Amino acid sequence: MAHSEDIDQFHQRIAEALPSANIPTLLLLLYQFTGREYWLSPRFIPAKSGWDDNDSGGLAIELQAEIRDAALSAILAWRHQGVPIARADLSAEELIGMLSMSEAESIPPEYADMMIHKLRRYSGTVPDPVCLPDNFRILVIGAGMSGIAAAVRLRQLGVSYIQIEKQDRTGGVWHSHRYPGCGVDTPGHLYSFTFASGDWSKFFPLQQEIDEYLNRVACEFGIESSIRYGTECLFSRYDEESRTWHSRLRLSDGREETLVTNVVISAVGGFTTPKWPNIPGLRDFDGPLVHTSNWNPKITLDGKRVAVIGNGASAMQIVPAIADRVSALTIFQRSRQWAAPFPKFLMSVPESMQFLLRAVPHYEWLYRLRLSWIFDTQVHESLQKDPAWPHPDRSVNALNDGHRETCTRYIEEQLAGRPELLAKVIPPYPPFGKRMLLDNGWYRTLLKPQVTLVDSAAAQVEGKSIRAINGDSHEADVLIVASGYDITRFLLPVQIFGRDGVTVREAWDDDDCQAYLGTVVPGFPNFFMLYGPNTALGHRGNFIFTIESQLDYVLSVLRQMGEKKLSEVECRQDVYQRYNRTIQEMHQKMIWSHPGMSTYFRNARGRIVTNSPWRLIDYWNLTKEADLSDYHTMGNVGYQSKASAEAV
Length: 648
Hints:
Blueprint (H helix, E strand, L loop, with lengths): L1 H16 L5 H12 L26 H20 L11 H12 L8 H11 L15 E4 L3 H12 L4 E5 L7 H4 L30 H14 L7 E2 L2 E8 L4 E7 L5 E6 L1 E4 L22 E3 L13 E5 L3 H10 L5 E5 L6 E2 L10 H9 L1 H16 L21 H17 L4 H7 L11 E2 L3 H5 L4 E4 L3 E5 L2 E4 L4 E3 L2 E4 L13 E3 L6 H4 L19 E3 L13 H21 L2 E6 L1 H15 L28 H8 L7 E5 L1 H4 L3 E4 L1
Parallel strand pairs: 1-2, 1-7, 2-3, 4-18, 7-19, 8-17, 9-10, 9-17, 10-13, 11-12
Antiparallel strand pairs: 4-5, 5-6, 6-22, 14-15, 15-16, 20-21
Helix pairs in contact: 1-3, 1-10, 2-3, 2-4, 2-11, 4-5, 6-16, 10-11, 16-18
């Protein structure tokens, strides 16, 4: 009887979930579960999706009902009747055919291997084993998203490591950044580790839920309890004789310790050092002054006159979140930003849908795979400069011009009847030239009577008055600085000394940061960085998959170090130079070298140091297996040098 009740309850909950399920994903599930080509036939091809995941597929109501009814039967047969999945192991040809139908476009066959790789990782497949000597130790600096991924993989593969984190908890920037409205602009089901799905309450989760997800993953995979919290790496120095790294740590009680390890993996992230604008009098503002990176929750905003310096990603989140609490809100914008429609902003994932994602993992895996195509891949072609394009001032090619038309039309709809605001917000440069933002209610907020947009950067602060370059002055009780981060200077949080005592800052001439595959630098043996130079995705996409690709590469190096009994690996200078020359040549053909805008993607020399020019498929192919001919290698000595820690 209880069994029958369980079946009835499951039946009811799945039936309640299917009306909110993604139709194109259900079609993929039906083909996989039943093996019937019928579900890939032309009558079910969805309308082409744009900026979202196309939940209805644009199909007629009766077709949607047919799909949901069939999905219910297939799921129940699998769950309660023991009917095997017809296509449990999808072939490359099948997968490309399925997704091409689902996206209503031809997906190149070259993507098949990467998609199969993702499905295997979603289902729990772990990388190949790594066998290293018992005394081989690795230091992981940081326990944010990258550090957690590194520690999980190292633990799964039985590699000994020590992990430090200067905060009191996991999460990195998602733990430290707590300004109102803080959240992610990538779908939560994509902004998740391949090995740990997120049971998200919102399609685009906010800061607290992401922080909790990261901590949950750390706990569930058994790495959280071993993290040394409140511990900061002051510097790390390579000892050429012993071929080990000597890292000076400051502990939570103020004591210092030297930790000796064979390898260092930096997971310090990029959004760690706030960038303060050089505005005379800013630090002397007569009232509460706060940067979004170090939010003070005790600041009173209700009924206050608030000014915000900046209109980038953090400003676009915080302004709509606080606008209805303040008496006046003044925004100083240095340059205009493109913002795309954001139909699922703050939209909750229905409880029934959350159940479906948990109960039918194959649905979740296919849903995530679709999202990875929509958000990771579609935009890249529109970022390439077309030398024959007749309008290079406003766009770089016909596709990019189409994005411009779509975004412009959307902004005009949002600000209808307010031509003076339209003149202030529509950028003159091509879409994606700066970071493409998503509209968190920004344009609706600009229409509020208490909100003023100053189309000029702040020039000076005197007392409670902020004067713009155009001469306008505005009074404020609270001043919020939303000017971003110093992300062109990678590895700022820690000093790294390589061969001959050369620091990474010296090797990079401060901000001219470069790395092979964004991961390794000549002169710094056995040192790997996650989220290094030229790994950011300026064309939307899933940052976490980039990190996991880097980790696969690092694990491949470590695996070969063990197999070949190597104590030292160091990227060759010619490999490093050739790679960085290649990516800069690629960038010269892409949008971020367009002269029509300033952007944090470029350093003071004009070189693009943050963004990757690669498609994800290209970067995945480059990182899935390390080629040790790219390295100078040495053996034996490191196997005799035992990692240690000396308290001082």
